[in-house]
What does this fold into?
Amino acid sequence: MRIAVTGSIATDHLMTFPGRFADQLVADQLHTVSLSFLVDNLDVRRGGVGANICFGMGQLGSGPILVGAAGSDFDEYRAWLDRHGVDTASVRISEVLHTARFVCTTDADHNQIGSFYTGAMSEARLIELKSVADRVGGLDLVLIGADDPEAMLRHTEECRSRAIPFAADFSQQIARMNGDEIRILLDGATYLFSNEYEKGLIESKTGWTDAEILARVGHRVTTLGSNGVRIECADGEPIEVGVPEEEAKVDPTGVGDAFRAGFLSGLSWGVSLERAAQVGCMLATLVIETLGTQEYTLRRAHFMDRFTKAYGHDASAEVQGHLH
It folds into this structure.
């Protein structure tokens, strides 16, 4: 399967202030705040849901196609993704805007002050999926992840008009979307991804019940945190998959993206939905054990040993031949 992933491409600039923000604030001067914090360290991490998902798929050898917008500062990030098996030829490079960026400072009490610069992400709406499909010889599935909201709507409508199967994955953009937009984005999706909280929010905002949503999508994939994942469809029994045992819990950031990467890779290999979900849960476990969304290393033997321990030899036999 040729799978394209549309979604944000961004870098995170994370800084640590050794003091407390509260000690620097004067109660009767909050209307004229002018502060500068001398920070101890700067950690620059690659991110963005589209890039995170594609990185994971590239690690699994499933050849993902990244579709999104970045700035002229994307060269180093592009080289990183290229080295890890991601097709970046369909990334639009803005002539005037930088790659989206999250800048955040955390104090000693774990309070945070952050800013998100949308930047080139706003140009994702200008990308036409037909040009991507023509370049690679057709698309079998497009995951429409969190991105410029207008881009998400346009990509969804293009998938419908061109009869390209698509997966709806609103993630953090669901908070700013209204019911009408969410109904447009999910109606007719082959897969609908969300976590358990987002599942309830989707139902609340659309006014549709769980059964009504299941009637409008092929499969509803709901991640359940430490309880794994549940896959439902309108005319079948739910599939529930647990998570492997963690060696450590370091940082949950990017775990959902890693699950999607593993699940989509399983789909591209043609294994069952249960096996695809197991691959997703195994990859997500590697991410939660690592600081950063793209800092883990997938070693085939180690991955398969842990996969076998978690899901058994029959499951392992179906997966290992596909893992590169």
Residues 128 and 134 are 10 Å apart (CA to CA). The two ends are 16 Å apart (CA to CA).
